[in-house]
Amino acid sequence: MTSPLKTLSAVVSPSQLVPLWNVLKHLPGGGRLLGRLAGQMAPYTGTIRPEVLSLEPGAVRVRMRDRRRVRNHLNSVHAIALMNLGEVATGMAVISALPPGARGIISHLAMDYLKKARGPITASCTCPPITSTEKQDLEVHAELSNEAGEVVARAHARWRVGA
Hints:
The protein is an alpha+beta fold. The protein has a single domain, classed as Roll (Thiol Ester Dehydrase, Chain A), CATH 3.10.129. It has four helices and six strands. The protein has helices at 4-11, 17-24, 30-41, 79-97; strands spanning 51-56, 59-64, 103-113, 121-126, 136-145, 151-162. The protein has a six-stranded antiparallel beta sheet. Helix 2 (17-24) runs antiparallel to helix 3 (30-41). The chain is globular, with a radius of gyration of 15 Å. The termini are far apart.
């Protein structure tokens, strides 16, 4: 039997991301549900269990809880879990800004690790408006912060967007 989330992820297009969020944000657990949906669409993304806190065209805030499965041997959040969160944030910001008929794929991702990450980590990303479906490379950046608001890492992503 196919799960309802898997069925939904097969029919949700990038242009439906923000309208879907506008419905889910009013439901208890709506941010976790949208994060699970993202994990159905891109299974590796689901390994960090992202939770969407806010989403509008070109801007997102997404959180990852600190749990044993995302920790390293230094008892802090693993570098690759942080990179995964950076990709989720940059991807949702870009995808939510795409014009109808366009799509995006990441072509480069780099991280600056500034301090040990502990506790829930929130990634914030904004991207400029995308007005054309012409193929182009778009550079976007996400800041990953701990509960105290300290930036623990920065993601630098290049997304190839277009029809």
